[in-house]
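Problem: given the chain below (172 residues), write out its structure.
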Amino acid sequence: GQKAVFLLIIATLMIPPTIILVPVFLVINTVGLLNSLWGVIFPAIATPTGVFLLRQYMLTIPDELLEAARMDHASEWRIYWKIILPLAAPALAVLAIFSVMWRWNDFLLPLIVLSRSEFFTLQLALNAFQGELNTQWHYLLAMTVITLIPITLVFAFLQKYITTGIASAGVK
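Solution.
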């Protein structure tokens, strides 16, 4: 049961993102999120990589801790909110950082979801900045550096969470 579902979720990692682009576009269009930043954000909320990372981290939580909480008559909901979620904070931080970094660098999904230039991500703006006949490389490269600065700062300040979260997710 659980292993089959987990393997099915992990198997989706082998599917290239371009193959699921049309179904994702249709869902975003049906929900009414076309031409909005939410149409770019929502598909990134639950990814197979996130499921894998959180599952591996949750497996490191000792069963004895959960059993002790059950012996103290804690409900499953209370165990989740008071024990599991605080212990999973490093993995959730890593997942949040990675999700922001992936969305920041994503080009293809915003390209199909956003058509109004006021909602363009920086990657789409870089692409739009290229001319058909003449590209002003000095401006384009300056914009590229500007797009790298925020994500580099995020990584620099949150590096300890990334290394702690990844290291502890792989240990059982």
